[in-house]
Amino acid sequence: YIPQFYLREFTDPETPNGYEPYVWVYEHESKKWKKKSPKNIASKLDFYSFIDQEGKRRDEVEKEGLSNIEGKTALIYRNKICTRQDLTIRERATIAEFVATMMTRVPKFHNFVDSSMSEIITRIMEMYKVRPEAFKKLKENYERDTEKKLPEDFDESCLDPSRYKIGATKSFILKMMVSLSEIAKIIFSMTWTFLHTKEDAWFITSDSPFCMRNPKSNSQWYGHGLTYRDIELTIPLSKQICILATWKKGLWQNIDVTQQFVEELNHDRIEASDKYIISPRNDFIGSQYLKYKTE
For 164-205, how does the pLDDT look when each residue is reduced to its tens digit (9 = 90+)? Predict the structure, then answer.
């Protein structure tokens, strides 16, 4: 669920000759570092596939969607972003799509959709359970619209959420994930700055690289949408380059950042991570914040 080409940009630059390049992975649960090859992390079997109503496995989300975006992004990063060249409109649209996928393709987003749907459905069921008149109307409307008769013993108790395991289907979550057009359009319209760091002041990433914050909002809920004026969106593209998207005008397209700025961004990455962070080294600028990571 994190692209291989992307993870390879965070390998340890001091990997010994003859060894397969590796990244450093810090697991929040064990609080331990491990060296791992990019191909051995951030993957789950059939994570982007589902079984359709005909019993067939569908995997076009990964094969036709994500793989296409990843291939184009890798070329643009190497040929244009690394060399600080201006992007064409089409290249900018591709990067916007890539950033949007990095928000929605990870387990943290999938779990968020699942828990949100579970909460909504549970609340609806509880409402009908304590309102017999509304339940009766619901039953009448169903039988009228479907021309099917519900069992006589189908009553309010059948809507007791404790009797069911409630959640979003895999196909629903994947449809939410690939509905990227509006998110990508918003990101495309923002002002982009590519932040470049120097050697020994690397950016880190995680199993949830996309980070959004509003430095002027003290609320946990208010002011954190993409369209808020003061929102700041960041995602590291490699250990040397991070993209910053804001609604501020007149910013440089490429800037070299200080170690303090790198530390702040790495702190954001730690807080946005789910199960683990990924770093070129096990001692990075901002690593002191690992012990303060909140679940």
Answer: 777 666 666 666 666 666 888 899 999 999 999 987 789 999
Q: What is the pLDDT of residues 195-235, one digit of tens each?
A: 999 877 899 999 888 888 887 766 555 455 777 888 899 99
For residue 177, the model assigns a pLDDT of 61
Q: Please give the C-alpha separations between residue 55 and each of 47, 51, 116, 173, in angstroms, as whole numbers.
A: 17, 6, 27, 18
Query: What is the per-residue pLDDT across 42-66, written as a single tens digit (0 to 9) for each?
Result: 666 565 565 666 767 655 555 556 7
Task: Specify the pTM.
Answer: 0.76
- Residue written as tokens 């697991």? 27
CB 166 within 8 A of CB 118: yes
Integer distance in angstroms from the first to the last C-alpha of the chain?
21
For 264, phi then psi, to 5°, come to -65, -45
Is residue 231 within 8 A of residue 246, CB to CB? The reply is yes
Q: Which long-range contacts (CB under 8 A, 24 or more apart) does 4-9 make?
A: 4/38, 4/39, 5/70, 5/73, 5/74, 6/70, 6/205, 6/209, 6/237, 7/38, 7/41, 7/42, 7/205, 7/278, 8/38, 9/77, 9/237, 9/238, 9/239
Taking the C-alpha atoms of residue 109 and residue 78, their distance in angstroms, rounded to an integer, is 28
Helices (H) and strands (E) in the chain, counts: 9, 11
Q: Which of 246, 259, 255 is nearest to 203 (CA)?
A: 259
